[in-house]
Structure formats: structure tokens, C-alpha cells
Batch of 2 targets.
Target 1
Amino acid sequence: MDELRQHIRRYCQISDAELSAMAPYFSLQTFRKRELLLKEEERCDRMFFVEKGCVCVFFTKDNGQEQVVDFAIEQWWTTDFGAFLSHSKSRLGIKAVEPCTVLVLTRTSKDKLLRDFPQMEQYFRTIAEKAYSAAQHRIRLLYELSREQAYFYFRDKFPEFVQRVPQYLLASFLGFTPEYLSEIRKRAFLKRV
Amino acid sequence: MDELRQHIRRYCQISDAELSAMAPYFSLQTFRKRELLLKEEERCDRMFFVEKGCVCVFFTKDNGQEQVVDFAIEQWWTTDFGAFLSHSKSRLGIKAVEPCTVLVLTRTSKDKLLRDFPQMEQYFRTIAEKAYSAAQHRIRLLYELSREQAYFYFRDKFPEFVQRVPQYLLASFLGFTPEYLSEIRKRAFLKRV
């Protein structure tokens, strides 16, 4: 739970003893590359904190293709939050992009954790506010940038991330075909030479 | 503060006396139609709770046109959350679509409110989680639906809202010209007749 301990400490004051007492509320799970953490249409009763690795969040389009809408790497929480909050079936799937170590927090455990450690309200408030502010900015970018501009934006803003994820997933996230992404990268490379 | 009292009560347990004691943390402001609650590039140190009316959230594009990215009506909080959290300049403007009554909560007041009434952590956690889950779903829709499908989605899901906001703002939000929106509506009407 090292990554999570660090993450909690960043946003709320909590003792070592309390952090240790919280451990049983989380379960540590590992996933192989391409393994599903959450299936579409499955009842969504858990949140995932990435300790190690990278996952993608996607939905299956009418033509059967998977459309990537988000990623999560170390120290990110992810799930279908709407389904999690409303106790309903997930409209999103989550898949390991790399071998992953993940802390799973079920809704029941989260409720109990917040009752037993009310100071965790501040932690979950802060991460939800940060997630919402990132999503609000992303919605603005979806209006503002062409797909090609979005590629350059992500490449310049998150260079390590763009290197890290497989290109076909990055292409899907940006709304490209993999071929078109490779063309843009070639053009950008030639411009620099 | 009636709308806010109801809203807080929905998400956390709090007494009448406590609610009354919170009143001084908020300031009530009214805005005329088209008046700005928040300017782009202005330092963003406040959140807005709509008591009565409707506002739109926008940014100015390179060509000078205002692009609407969101709306907020009664019982919604709004601001540029990224700028609010990072104490920076707003990348979004907020404008009254109708005459509005708004409760303003500055960052300083919010911090003090959370120190003095820690049970409000649960309220702000819950509204941030709900806002994030709505944004996550909206990002999915931006990938999934054509602009025309998005119009029908919003019309069927939020019929009163689609009736309430001026059509040129709805068109901007959906990424249309007002003329194209009127064409879609006409076609849809003719199909029903």
C-alpha cells in the first residue's frame, strides 16, 4: 500500500497507526496484461487504485471496436463512477495495459472506511475535486482542439505517458486510426529533422 | 439560502442551527441576464451555487466566438474548478443566461467552513463525486454520439432544460451553428407529424 499511503498523506493528516488500521479495507489484486479489472455491463461496486502499472477505460462501440476514453497510471483512482455511485451496471470496461498491481475498494468498504475514519472524507473530497477539474478541462479541450492538435497537446504535456502506452490505444483515445497516428508522428519527426 | 439548505441536507446530516451559523460564509449576489459571474483570465477564487436562474460556462475561441461547454441551473455548483483549486487565472468564463441569484463561496470561506464544520467534507465530497461521474459520462458521450445524436440525447434526457436555454447557446454547446440546429429540429418535427 506504499503508493496509496503516500497519496493519502498528500491530502490529509493521518497517523501511521491509522494508515495501518485501514489496510484491511483494501484488497490487493494483480492483473495480467490485457486482463479485465471491470467488465462492461457488470455491476460496478468497486473503485481501483493503481499501485503499479497502467489501465485503460473503454466502451465497446456498435461496430464491436473498443473505444478508449481514459487511462489511469500509478496513484490514480478509476472506475465507472456513475455506476459505482448509483449501484448500477458499468457502462465502461477497464483493462490492464501492462501487468498491474491494484488496490480494490468496494462500496461497502468505502462506506465503512468513511464511518470509521471520518478524516478520509477530506481525502476523497480532494481526489474527486481534482478528478472533476481535470475532466472539466478535458471537456474544454475536446471542444477546442482538432484531433491532431490533441495529439501534440498530449505529447508535450505528458511525454512519458505518450511513450508508455501502446500506440493503438493512444490512437483510439485520440479518435484516430493507428495508421493516421503513425502518419502524424512521421510528419512531426520530418519537420524537426 | 433555501436551495442550498435543501441541497446540503440531501447529502449530509446537519442541524438547523448549524445551517444558520453557516450563512455568513456565503454571499448572495444577483446578476442580470448576460452579466458575467466570472471573466476569462480573471483570478478564480470563488465557487458559485445557483439559487435561481441559469448560467453558461464558455471560453472564447481564436476567432472571437464564445464556445459554450456547460450550463448550470438551480442547485448546481459551478466555477473553473482547475483554476479554483490551483489559485490560478480562469480559463473559462461564466455568464448569466437568465437573471440569476447566486451564492458565492470564496476559497478562503470554503477553507474556513470546512475547518469550522468538518461534516461539510461529506457534502463537498459527494457533490464533487457526482460532478465527476457526470463529466466522465459526458466524455463518453462526446466519443460515442454524433452531434445530431447528442441533440436528441439531450432533448430526451433533459426536455425542460432544452426548452429553457436560448437556442443559439444550445447550438454552441452541441457544436452546431444555430441554423443547423433549427434544421434538425424541423426535420425531427416533420418526422413526428
Target 2
Amino acid sequence: MRKVYDLAGRENECRFSPFCWRVRTALAHKDLDAEFVPWRFTEKDRLAFSGQDRVPVLVDGDRTVSDSWAIMAYLDETYPERPLFDSPQSRAHGLFVKHWTETALHQAIFPIILLDIYRALRPEDQAYFRESREKALGRRLEDFEGDREARLTTLRRTLAPLRQTVKLQPFLGGAEPSGADHVVYGAFRWPQAVSDTRLLEPDDPVQGWLNRVTAAYRDRVRLAA
Amino acid sequence: MRKVYDLAGRENECRFSPFCWRVRTALAHKDLDAEFVPWRFTEKDRLAFSGQDRVPVLVDGDRTVSDSWAIMAYLDETYPERPLFDSPQSRAHGLFVKHWTETALHQAIFPIILLDIYRALRPEDQAYFRESREKALGRRLEDFEGDREARLTTLRRTLAPLRQTVKLQPFLGGAEPSGADHVVYGAFRWPQAVSDTRLLEPDDPVQGWLNRVTAAYRDRVRLAA
């Protein structure tokens, strides 16, 4: 059976990594099944077999692939039906969408939800999360308590290119979702898994796009471990 | 002869519209010739034949097409060799790059160069530019005199997704430039045409990418009217 090591919170059902979500919907896109094995921040030894210490890790028969982008490329190579990217140029453009997601969108979402993430973790993972994130940010997690409205405004402004695009076409991939949709969609499943904060106004075209992606994979995305 | 109505400054040689530049390099990409007819902001009557009042306007035989994105689509449809986008999905992704360029990159460049643009115009066009831009911005042009360093910092941060992408592949389109490269490249020809401000550090990977696009079309991009 195909396996994906998947970041989990205190509850097994809490799967919040935006990178792992890319793999979850990419597998659904290809109608491929997998077991999503819960994994926590402090279980780095359990990934030793993969030669690195981060999720997602896909184990597919005798192949082990880490890094969500590499996993998506592996899936297109190994299972060419229902491609995530239908040409090298399209994949190359997808790489820009990936980097926009990571340098602009994730950066705008993270400060809004980092305390929610913290609260969703086991105590031992909380300690790891606090130490690593406070070191990276140069600030205490609690410094992000306020300013929610200003951060939401920044996030909604950051979403402008996505919003303009999905006003003109149903998906980033055009008439159907592509790998680019999976990458951006993962960014939104991250807050959804841990936070009650409403990131989008209900009439935001981005919300319509989110609903379309969710509907496209509703029957094929499974959370069971 | 194919004709493109092309925004010009006081000097005929000053062609600064980022949208017109898209068409210039897209034509070069396809090895198609055109006359680039200088046009100024206050010459709206000269575009009346196109049913709207903005450049670029392409006149190709009996076809008239306005709007840079529509012109690029027209070129791929009419001259399918050397496609700007090699699949509908790739074009769909390109639309995201276009909207990122217009909502993030142009927004970061414009405040840095708007006084330079103003100074490059004929007096009658200066009056038009001042009135229309001050109304849109809600501020006087001269309010943008200072803060150059802070604005350059914002611009360089905005460029993160482009920078990360062209570190990993030569062009946004991958091994070769695509329509997405033309759209982003146009944004950089805009300041280059009117301003001495150095937007990029010389060792910025974005500068390397700019040099590669310039080199790819060096022999085919003409400025002659």
C-alpha cells in the first residue's frame, strides 16, 4: 500500500501541513489511494529511512520520495494519466506559482495562525514548535496575538493575483485544476485544520475557487490514517 | 505592414509602456516584424478606429486587436509556430503570472518611477498624466519624491517568487522564454526607458534572468518607429 507521512496535531485527524495537503489532493487528482500516516514534529527518527527529516514523504512500493514538489513530479512521471502539469512549460509556470505561494501567501497566513497551530500540538511538539519558530522569527509566539485585522487586510491584498485569475477562469489550471491549484489549495487547508479565523470574505472570488477545488476532490480526499 | 501603436515619451525613442513591451518581445519571439508607431497619452482620437483608447493596439492586415493579453492570444492563434504558450493549461498559469505582475510588481515599481515618467513626457502629456494619476493615487506626484530606499526594499521583497524561480530554471517558461517571461520582462523595460534608478542589485538572480531575456531577443527587438 502507498504511504504518505503526514504532519498531525494532537488529534490524529488534525492534518495541517500545507505541503502534505499538496500531496493529498495531487493523489486524489490522479485517483490514487494512499495511507496517510500521522507524524509529529518530534518524530524525526521515524523519517530517517528517507534520508531527511521533513514531511511529506511518499513511500510507493520500493520508491521513497520526499519534498512535495518532487513528489508531484514523481507522480506525473510514474502515473502519467491525469497529469498535474500537461507540458514542461506548464510545470515551469507552476514553479512560479509554488514560489509565490511560499514567499507571499504562506508568509501572509502564518502570523495569523501560528498560535492556533501551537495550541493544536502535543506538549512535546509545542516545545519544539516554539523553540524553532521563535528562533526563525526572532520574536515570541505571543507577540503575534494582536494585529489580526491588519494581518487579514495584508493577506487579502496578497491574494490579488489569485483573485483576478479565478475571476476569469475556474481554476489556476484553466477549465480543470492543475498542480498549481493543489499547491495554492494546500495553503488554505493549513489554517482550516487548526483555526476558526475566517480568512476570506464570503463573497471573495477566492472563496468560490476554494469551493470548486474542494468539490472537485470531495469524494477522493480521505483523512483516515 | 503590421503596426503596433506604442506609448512614447517626449522623444520618439522613449518607449516605456510595460504593456506595449509585452507585444514587442512577443513579436520578436515569433520572429514577426512590425512598425511601432509612437503614440502619446493625449492622442486618444488616433485610437478611435480600435473602439477603445489605450495602447497597445495591433493592426495586422484587416485585423485590429487591443489589450496586450488579447494580442498575445491573437498571435498564438494566427501564427502558431513558436508558441508563447504551448498548452491551454500553460496559458492559464500564465494568466496568474500576468495578474501577479499587474497587482504586485507594477504596484511596487510605479511609485519609484512615476516622477521619472512625468519628466519624460511632453508638456501636454504631463498635464494629463498628473491629473489622471493624482486622482487615482489620491496624492500629488511630488509626494513620491522621498522614500526611495524603502520602496526599493519593498520591490526587492516583492520579487521573491520570480527570484526563487529563475534560480532553478533559466526562464519562467523553463528552458526557453514563454509568454509569461514577456509579461514580466515588460515590467522591467518600463523603468529602464525613463529612469536611472538601479532597481536590482547586480548579483540579484532576477538581473541574470533579465539579461537572458534581453540576449534571447537582442537581434529581433527593434525600436525604430
